[in-house]
Each structure stands twice: as structure tokens, then as C-alpha cells.
Design a protein that fits this description.
With about 475 residues, this protein is of the alpha+beta class. The protein is about 55% helix and about 15% strand. The strands form three sheets. Strands 1, 2, 7, 8, 10 and 12 form a six-stranded mixed beta sheet that branches. A four-stranded antiparallel beta sheet has the order 6-5-9-11, with no helix packed on it. The protein has a two-stranded antiparallel sheet with strand order 3-4.
Length: about 475
């Protein structure tokens, strides 16, 4: 027993649980106690190693953004942008980040997360009334999306960013930029009633009679109201646009899949890889002990799970008591994360199998060396004791490995599940505003003021606790 304990202490690793690390910060954030969440995330950032700084900066940016401190949010997101843009990860290292514990690798983020960083910088500028700075970042974001268009699946595209960029471009008179973004969305999501309506609005603003005829079917879907909230035809010179940008629900998060041994596909493949590697290294005597201890190990590849399906559903709105309909989900972050990770499970197993087997074998060989050292000191020649030592060493190696291959549960936990957008046109004036919250916690305004010739962007964050 003493042998097993001593060997275990030498080999045992310690995998941290991001869920527990971020728990207090996340609880304060979703409790809308931002003044408590901010120092908590700052403490985590300042006390973290470089491997977690990107993630903590992303969380900090979201907390400041939701609080309404857009300048501080941009400070955090710009630092995150710098970290993300400088990360260069080899394919081997990228693979290990899925398998080894979060003590082993830097948090690099996915490409669609790095796009989201730039989106929030642009969005924050927009909410500060700095349309030209917002446009600069939308252009940077567009460059990223163009690269992804050729290298990644369409579900990673950010149509909320494209749509809002189009609206900003219209406001700045950069009509061709708006047209390009609408065309990009048509290629990805096809033609929709709202998209056709947006194309008709653009044609009116440009005075393009050809496009007005081409997209005339969208005329009836343009929601334009006079001061009495009666539907009227759109007059782009007399009415101002109101754009609701709703960040809905809590994003899907990583969870454990359970014990590795319970996944037949992974367990069988790993056993075969370990047997081959051990045989090649001449350490097969410890195989039974190592595999027995591995039976308690968690599957190192986590799974993304939804956690706020009701909160993520489209919401309806009313202005001065008049129902103006629902917002459209333009970018589903949870769905993207789930597809990106869960749908590639077998590929991730295959990709990481060799590196995991090598790690297991390295620990087993180390345990064998210690067992030989113990045998040499004893010099008793007792085969039974020798066998027990080797079994104990193999079990210790397996136990140590089971601690270091825990799933990496790090993920962006404060981001919304999806982004919804709705545009209506109103006559200048003050209006009551209401969102169909249905039990959700939210920061929707109760009144809005529409100014002549000036677009109004209404940011809303909601979720169910």
C-alpha cells in the first residue's frame, strides 16, 4: 500500500475545473450584480497564467458590455483581440487542447469566437454613437468572415454581424457595402421576407428604381409607422429606423461526457492503441493495472449542451401597445458551438488517440522504472512481492493519467445563446416599449426616444435563471 501511495504522489496530476473557477463571477453576472462580477473577473485575470488570459478577457468584455460600460468593454475586447490574433497553434497542439486537461494548453478560442470579439468591439462603438469606428471594425470582421467562407463550414458565419454592418453602411451612405452584405446573406440563408424588405429599403435610399421593382415584394414587409403607430408607406426622409439587437439566452457550455470506459468506441480504440504502444516499449506487464485505473477516468473530450432553450427563443415586442412582431435569430452561437464540437466527436477521438496513448505509456514506463528501483532496494527475490509491486505501479500510473486527461471545460460562459435583430421605422417622438419577456431576466427599456434622421439601436440582454 505504501508503495502505491508513494508512486501515486509522484505521478498524480491535478486538473482544474473551469466551472468552479468561474462560478462566482458567472453567478454575479447573471444576477445583474456587475459591480461584484467585475472585480471577480479582474482577480481571475490578474491571477491567471497566460493560458487562460484570452478567455478571462472575453468574459470581462461581456460583463462590461452588458453593464453598459462600452468603453471598458472595448478595452477588454481589444486586448483579447490582440491575444487572439497573435495565437499561432500547430495542428498537434490544437489537437492536444481537446484531450489533455486545461493545465496543459493555452485557451485559443475558435475562429467564430475570434470573430465575435471583433463583432463586440464594432457593436460597442455603435452603441457609443461612433459609427465610423464601428464601420472600421465591421470591415476587419468581414475580412475574417471571408477567410472562414473558404476554410470553414457555413454555420460558422456570423449573419448578425453582416446584417448590422449593412444597416451601419446604409446610415453612412455606403450603399455598395450594404448591398454586398445582403448578397452574402442571401448566399448563406437564401432569400427571406425580411431580407427582401431590407433590399427594398436600400433601393429606396439609393433611388434605384430598377432594384425597387426587383424587390417590390418586400415593400409590404417593411414595418413603418406614424406617430399614432398606424402602418404607413416608408418615407426614408421622414422616418427614422429603430434597430433592436437582442442577445438572448445563456450560451451552450461544455460538460463531461461521463466515464471514458462507458464510451465503447473510444474505450476500444484507446485500449488497442495503448497495447500496441506498450508492446513496442516492452512495458506490457503493467497494462492490466493501467487499464483498471483508467476505468475511473472521465472521457477527455467534453460535450456542448444547451442550458437555456426557453430563454433563447425569439421574442416579441410592442411599441405604444402595438404588437410589432418578433425578432429574427441571425446568429446562433450555441448551435455553432454544438455543431463545431459535438458533430466532430469521432474525428476528435481519432485525431487525439495516438497522443493520449503516448501519454499513458510514458506514465506506465515511469511506473515500471520506479517498480524496478523498489525491487532492487528490497533484493528479496520474492516473485509474489515483485508482481504486486508491478501491479501497484501500473495502477498508480493509470490513476495519475486518469487525473490529467480530465475534459477541458473552458468555454465562453457569459455570451448569449443567440443574437436576434429586428428593424422598424418610426416617426420622431417618444414611445413606450415592451418586450415579451415570459419570465426572463432582461434589461429592455420601458421607453425609447426616436430622433429625426438618426438611427436608434436598442441593446437587450435576456435569459432565464
Amino acid at each position: 500500500m505504501k508503495i502505491l501511495i508513494s508512486i501515486s504522489l509522484l505521478l498524480l496530476g491535478c486538473a482544474s475545473d473551469y466551472n468552479k473557477i468561474i462560478e462566482a463571477t458567472e453567478s454575479a453576472y447573471y444576477g445583474q450584480n456587475y459591480d461584484s462580477a467585475i472585480p471577480k473577473i479582474r482577480e481571475l485575470y490578474e491571477g491567471s497564467s497566460n493560458k487562460d488570459k484570452l478567455l478571462f478577457l472575453m468574459e470581462a468584455g461581456m460583463i462590461f458590455h452588458t453593464k453598459g460600460d462600452y468603453a471598458s468593454s472595448n478595452k477588454a475586447f481589444k486586448e483579447a483581440e490582440g491575444v487572439a490574433d497573435n495565437i499561432r497553434v500547430s495542428l498537434t497542439r490544437s489537437g492536444l487542447s481537446f484531450v489533455l486537461s486545461d493545465n496543459e494548453s493555452n485557451y485559443t478560442g475558435e475562429d467564430f469566437e475570434r470573430v465575435m470579439i471583433k463583432f463586440y468591439i464594432a457593436y460597442n462603438y455603435l452603441l457609443m454613437g461612433e459609427l465610423n469606428n464601428a464601420k472600421i471594425y465591421f470591415r476587419r470582421l468581414d475580412f475574417e468572415l471571408k477567410e472562414m467562407k473558404f476554410l470553414a463550414a457555413e454555420y460558422r458565419q456570423n449573419n448578425a454581424a453582416r446584417l448590422i454592418d449593412a444597416y451601419v453602411s446604409e446610415s453612412l451612405g455606403r450603399y455598395n457595402d450594404a448591398r454586398v452584405q445582403y448578397k452574402n446573406m442571401e448566399q448563406i440563408i437564401g432569400k427571406s421576407q425580411n431580407l427582401t424588405a431590407d433590399r427594398f429599403v436600400l433601393a429606396l435610399r439609393e433611388g434605384d428604381s430598377t432594384d425597387q421593382n426587383k424587390y417590390a415584394s418586400g415593400r409590404g414587409n417593411v414595418q413603418a409607422y406614424n406617430r399614432s403607430m398606424q402602418r404607413i408607406g416608408l418615407n426614408v426622409e421622414r422616418l427614422s429606423e429603430v434597430i433592436i439587437i437582442h442577445e438572448a439566452g445563456k450560451s451552450a457550455i461544455k460538460s463531461s461526457r461521463g466515464r471514458l470506459i462507458e464510451d465503447e468506441y473510444f474505450a476500444v480504440a484507446l485500449r488497442g492503441a495503448v497495447e500496441v504502444a506498450l508492446r513496442n516499449k516492452g512495458a506490457s506487464a503493467s497494462l492490466s493495472g493501467a487499464l483498471a485505473a483508467l476505468a475511473i477516468a472521465e472521457n477527455p473530450i467534453p460535450i456542448y449542451k444547451m442550458r437555456d432553450e426557453k430563454g433563447a427563443k425569439p421574442k416579441g415586442y410592442s411599441i405604444n401597445g402595438v404588437d410589432v412582431g418578433y425578432s429574427d435569430i441571425m446568429n446562433d452561437f450555441s448551435d455553432t458551438a454544438i455543431h463545431n464540437f459535438n458533430d466532430n466527436y469521432k474525428m476528435l477521438v481519432t485525431k487525439n488517440l495516438t497522443s493520449l496513448a503516448v501519454k499513458i505509456v510514458a506514465a506506465v514506463i515511469a511506473s515500471e522504472a520506479m517498480a524496478r528501483a523498489v525491487e532492487s532496494k528490497g533484493k528479496n527475490g520474492n516473485e509474489l512481492v515483485s508482481g504486486l509491486i508491478r501491479v501497484a505501479a501500473g495502477a498508480a500510473a493509470g490513476l495519475a493519467i486518469s487525473q490529467t486527461i480530465a475534459p477541458d471545460l473552458r468555454c465562453w460562459r457569459t455570451i448569449p445563446s443567440n443574437f436576434q435583430v429586428k428593424r422598424v421605422f418610426l416617426a420622431p417622438g417618444e414611445y413606450s416599449f415592451k418586450m415579451d419577456a415570459q419570465g426572463s431576466t432582461h434589461n429592455a427599456p420601458s421607453r425609447i426616444v426616436v430622433e429625426e434622421g438618426k438611427p436608434l439601436y436598442i441593446p437587450i440582454r435576456s435569459y432565464r435563471n
